[in-house]
Amino acid sequence: MRNDFDLTPYRRSTVGFDRLFDLLESGLRSETADGYPPFDLEKDGDERYRITLAVAGFRRDEIEITAQQNQLVIAGRKTEEEREDGPRFLHRGIAARAFERRFQLADFVQVRSAELADGLLTVTLEREIPDEMKPRKIEIGSGGAPQLDAPEKPRLAA
Fold this sequence. Notes:
Blueprint: H1 8-12, H2 18-26, E1 39-43, E2 48-54, E3 63-68, E4 71-76, E5 99-104, E6 109-117, E7 120-127
């Protein structure tokens, strides 16, 4: 079964939607295939969002959050090395492998905070549109052309 769609006709008739078409065509291939670590994505109000990742076994210093233009990258890397005098696992069910999750952010979405508690990493996001980008009401003037004061002509002395 083929999942690729040809968006060329739409690209020809639109302006400024290149990023959207690129995302659609890529099929969000940047996501990990195995779904690790699992996450929840919530809408918390009109312009607030929350991403919660299950990162059991990771410490704060082993997780890196990077916000760049329209993308949020959350990566985890274990720094502990097994030592000879350390615990020897008979079964290791808590995943401790490295991960990287990428989230595409809409325009004007900013990361507000990140907290790690009880094995859950919660990242709070908020869309904040700058005042100059918000719709504004334009006053309609009268139908006549604006009147300009004619400069006075200099008088000659007689």
